Amino acid sequence: KNEVEQSPQNLTAQEGEFITINCSYSVGISALHWLQQHPGGGIVSLFMLSSGKKKHGRLIATINIQEKHSSLHITASHPRDSAVYICAAGPHSGGGADGLTFGKGTHLIIQP
Amino acid sequence: GAGVSQSPSNKVTEKGKDVELRCDPISGHTALYWYRQSLGQGLEFLIYFQGNSAPDKSGLPSDRFSAERTGGSVSTLTIQRTQQEDSAVYLCASSLAPRFRVNQPQHFGDGTRLSIL
Fold first, then answer.
1. Residue A99: which of B42, B59, B101 has the nearest Cβ?
2. Which residue of chain B is at minimal alpha-carbon distance from A85?
3. pLDDT by 10s per residue, chain B, length 117
């Protein structure tokens, strides 16, 4: 069974700060997803990556397959970045489901 | 274009009643997933449909839960004899690919918030 751990669980920062959210998983996977859940509940897929690094605007996601670790970075953070950020891993080799195993999320608040 | 549509957006029902939740995936998406997010908990995989293949039901928490996908499009998640612990947000997602690919993310609906009294 794949275990996905995120840290920190809660993060409050000032506008403009550089934000890092970490995700670790326990078994080999095909892809690692970063999702953003808005205060209203809607979920948006930010990144899906299986190696290296991806960048979209002020968001950067990295993954280290050997260490089973991924990070999501936000540069020049803004109050509108306030949301829950969820890491999801899968599918993993030998796993039966094509669904994802999710972390519990990181609740990010950016204060003006 | 239209995204994943779920209905109802909110459902309140009494313990013991049956409920049906609907998901209308993005047109052309062959893969459809149901997830559950309980209060204070992370997302939990429930079931996966891929085309006309038998669904992967390995995430369903009990035999009170079932789902079907008619015509490879709309899906219905049914919970029989609801219990209070079934209260959660039920999310549906769809994707183009039958298996995860780097450039084929899942697209999520807004969810159905289910409250069991």
1. B59
2. B42
3. 589 999 999 999 999 999 999 999 999 888 888 999 887 777 888 998 887 788 888 889 999 999 999 887 999 999 999 999 999 999 999 888 655 444 467 788 989 999 999
